[in-house]
Amino acid sequence: MKPRTRVVFVVGALVVLAAGLAYRQCGRTVDRAPEDAATIAITKTRLRLRDLQHQPAGTISGRVTVSGKPASALVCASSIDGSDDPRCAMAIDGAYQLTDVRAGGYVVWASAPGFVGRRWRDRAGNDRVSLAAGASRSEIDFALDARGAQLVGTVRDTRGRAVAGALVHVRVDRTPMFTARSDAAGAFTAWVTGATASLTASAASATASVTASADGYVDASIETTMPRSDLELVMLPEATLSGTVVEASTRAPVADATVWIDGSNVITDNDGTFRATKLRPGRYKPTVRSIGGYGEAAESVVLRVGASIAGIVIEVHPVAVVAGKIVIAGTTKGCPEGEGNVAIERRGSRDYAFGRTIGDGDVLLEGVVAGSYAVQLHCAGYLSAVSYPDLVVGSTDVEDVVWTVTPGAKVIGRVTAKSGQPIGDAQVTISAGFRGQDGGARTEADGTFEVIGISAGEVSVYAAQTGYVSSNSVRVLAAIGTPVRVELVLEKAGEITGTVLDRAGAPVADLKVEARRDDATSGPGGTTDLRGEFSIAGLEPGAYTVVAESKWDLGSTSRAIGAPVRTTVTGGVTARVALVVDPDVGDLAGVVVDASGAPVADVAIDVALSSTDLEPRRRDWERNLAWSATDGSFRIAKLPQHELAVRARIEGANEAVVDRVKLGDRVRLVLKPTGVLAGVVTDPGGAPVDDVSLEIDDRAQNISRTERLFHTGGKFTFRELPAGTYRITADEDRQTSISVPLADGAHRLDLELALRPRHAIKGRLVSADRKPLAGWQLEVPHKTAPDSAGGRSVIIFEVEHAVTDARGEFLIQGLVGAEVTISAGDLASGAEMTEVKTVQLTGRSPIDLGELVVPAKPPP
Questions:
Q1: Residue 321: which residues within 8 A CB-CB, separation 6 or more?
Q2: Sorting pLDDT into bands at 50, 70 and 90, what band is 435?
Q3: pLDDT surpasses 80 at 241
């Protein structure tokens, strides 16, 4: 089965707003959905979700010319948000067609040997290709005529074998620029450029992100400066995970369910089966969302390099769906399709859902567990409110929710060079500060820009472009309704190029070189190629110290190897230097075995400098420097002349460390057998719980793992645990935890953990004159427990939050303890929180507090 990705609506993958939704895990949901799927009504939202699942695919087509003549080229398209892999097609005699393209917004680019790749733009400069369901977009044409610098490299696997037919995607400034295909020897060449000039020995270099993708392998990515002639991408054989999704009550297969595995997703077939590919070695716990359903695997699994695990069965339980709309204030117009999104996160957990706008601002979330959710949203070019009321989800669908955005302030202007020449395609960034909404845009060919939908008030504006020094920030006052104009001037940047040789005159490759100002301990840098050449671009004019550095932390204030060189940079001019160093040249070999002495293959080998101060797991490891072969052996080159620590690591499971290793030693790393801890979690009455999160940790070894138990009957199993003493904590309540010692390979299967009572409170927040306080935030500290930090005794606690709705009403769930104190504050004004009431957590839940009056503050 080939994995399918869903583009139209996405639930469970927090892509844009994750930073704003970092709440802590705690109590169970109070309002649970019924177990009988037959009791769920077929609402209009569910019918629409079903229609969306079966939308017809469309096509994108056009022509590619080189110097005005039809050309063979590779044309690729990727969704605007980057949520799926690029799809590519060859242009034959200049004509191409991308088929089976789902509805959504795409970036499309063309690549031909010898010419710089080009991203499609319309006459207005927009690079978005919007495709409706079943539609065909034609005349997406490209004219390639610019010759650029080469980015040359090879693609191989961890055994050193060439990977033929890999697609190598090159992005500059996060924008797709070129795609090449590796040949039979794994070699590829891409032709790339910065935003304004071809990359030659005398032009400003740029940084590129390069990703190789091939069937049967995990994608490999690397950041590099350009041009480059010796790039190497190393690909791991893929691991796979497959299974079936069924309804919990009937065991019937669930088709078109979305199976989430570590941020990526696949869609189940008609028989409920799924197969996820391109997985890295590590620990995985699949989750599933369907229309009105949610489920999780009973326990996590560990995938080794190239391994396959099949037969996983995930039960889906009935939950609600949510339907809302992002509306532009003062109109009936919705946020355009694909340009808005809504992210909700359940209070007291990390359970979240995410959906993008479809149609005229509609947002549909297909499987949402009951609870109170914090809401954040975005609509391109418009201003979101400081806060939105919590979304309370029960056992029935939530429909017709309306979220409003406003036009916001506008900043316009122009970016030019000191000569007055306009600078096109420069990145303009606007920062509105804490609680404000930022913005940005790229300049047109005439240097002009327009940024809309930012917060009113004082904002900082600056511009950046390859080959120029970033402008100083200009502070202006943005206002709603009246555009503010900014003129930004960029100074031509300088560049330092040079060579790094050892004392015998041989070039030193893969070495970091930095250009530092004054007494700085770091600065902009580049990496040497096979010829020892490097370039550092975008430098502000002035004096610099150029330093070659070891990548290893040598335990001192400097990593410099060899004498630094002083030089002066002038705008638009390249300064050249030569450095002589004593490079890292040592080799290290060893073998990985299990407790019986049998070799262990495909184990990651990491290296760090020896330390008497840090435990092995807390050190700054250079990861994946080698992988053990079938006979368990490994070899690592170019190591520093220092005592080293060497680690064999199975991601998500156990590891072995040998310290105080000298170059030339043969290291023997023994992976000891791991153990299992298992048991059951019950509520205060002794009944198994349906939804709880468990954390298991061993502070001495810096080991920590958190897993959610969703409808497992309270049963939990933690496998692949090294020997140690573990604390198991439920819902981050330190007073609901047990400490368990575990020997090598031991199994402790009879553990019991009882939760403390959970409570919910509700009420209505009003002012002193009894007017509802909408959009106010409430904070309730709870789960207090003693702990230690830095040798001191401390009290730790968790804080639950809620945001009031238009009536001032709120609901806070999952509270633990005898009493709690409620504080409230106006998010819009940024005022300090005010204590409102202390509540005894007794009696029937939810506890109705009625009206809570926020006292008026005396004037200053």
A1: 43, 45, 46, 49, 291, 292, 364, 365, 366, 367, 368, 397, 398
A2: low
A3: yes
Q: What is the pLDDT of residues 654-695, one digit of tens each?
A: 999 999 999 888 999 999 999 999 999 999 999 999 999 999
Cβ atoms 667, 661 nearer than 8 A: yes
Give the count of beta carbons closer than 10 Å to the beta carbon of residue 419. Answer: 7
Is residue 450 a contact partner of residue 484, using CB atoms and an 8 Å limit?
Answer: no
With tokens 């090294």, the residue in question is 722
For 445, the enclosing helix (H) or strand (E) is none
Query: 750: alpha, beta or left, given left = phi > 0 and alpha = psi -120 to 50?
Result: alpha
Return d(Cα 445, Cα 565) in angstroms, integer. 39
Average pLDDT over residues 33-60: 73
- Judge contact between 268 and 254, C-beta under 8 A: yes
Summarised one tens digit per residue, pLDDT across range 801-850 is: 999 999 999 999 989 989 999 999 998 777 789 999 999 999 888 999 99
Angle at 341 between CA 172 and CA 805, to 5 degrees: 145
Judge whether 579 and 498 are in contact, CB under 8 Å: yes
Q: Give the separation between CA 350 and CA 373, rounded to whole angstroms.
A: 10
Q: What local confidence, expressed as pLDDT, does residue 125 receive?
A: 75
Which domains does the chain carry?
1-26+36-54+256-397 (2.60.40.1120), 58-235 (2.60.40.1120), 409-492 (2.60.40.1120), 494-581 (2.60.40.1120), 586-671 (2.60.40.1120), 675-754 (2.60.40.1120), 759-853 (2.60.40.1120)
Total residue count of the chain as it appears in this document: 860
pLDDT of 28 over the 50 cut: no
Q: DSSP assignment of 523-549, as one string?
A: --EEE--TTSEEEEEEEPSEEEEEEEE
**Span 456-490, pLDDT tens digits:** 889 999 999 878 888 888 999 999 889 999 999 99
Do residues 778 and 826 make contact, with C-beta atoms less than 8 angstroms apart?
A: no
Strands 409-417 and 484-492: parallel
Give me the amino acid identity at 526. Answer: G
Cα→Cα distances 40→80, 370, 838, Å? 35, 14, 39
Three state DSSP letters for 665-700:
CEEEEEECCCEEEEEEEECCCCCECCEEEEEEEEHH
Nearest to 25 by CA among 753, 732, 780: 732
Quote the CA–CA distance of 742 and 751 in Å, as a whole number. 12
pLDDT band at 45 (very low <50, low <70, confident <90, very high): confident
What does the alpha-carbon distance between residue 296 and residue 827 come to, in Å, rounded to a whole number? 35
| Integer angstrom CA distances of residue 840 from 365, 385, 819 | 36, 34, 4
Mean pLDDT of 82-107: 91
Say which amino acid occupies 620.
Answer: D
Which pTM was predicted?
Answer: 0.86
Residue 102 CB-half CA count within 13 A: 19
Position 824 scores a pLDDT of 95
| Residue 286 backbone phi and psi in degrees, to 5 | -65, 145
Name residues whose C-beta falls within 8 Å of residue 519's C-beta, 6 or more positions apart in sequence: none
- Dihedral over Cα of 169, 170, 176, 179: its sign: negative
* H/E run at residue 740: strand 737-742
User: Is the separation of the CB atoms in 706 and 731 below 8 Å?
Assistant: no
Distance separating alpha carbons of residues 379 and 336, to the nearest angstrom: 8
Place of tokens 């004054």: 518
233: three-class secondary structure by DSSP = strand
SS3 47: helix
170's tokens: 């090159």
Kindly tell me if the per-residue pLDDT of 778 is higher than 60.
Answer: yes
Distance from C-alpha of 565 to C-alpha of 514, rounded to nearest angstrom: 11
Residue 390's identity, in one-letter code, is D
- In the numeric block, which tokens belong to residue 617? 């797991």
In angstroms, the CA 718 to CA 296 distance is 15
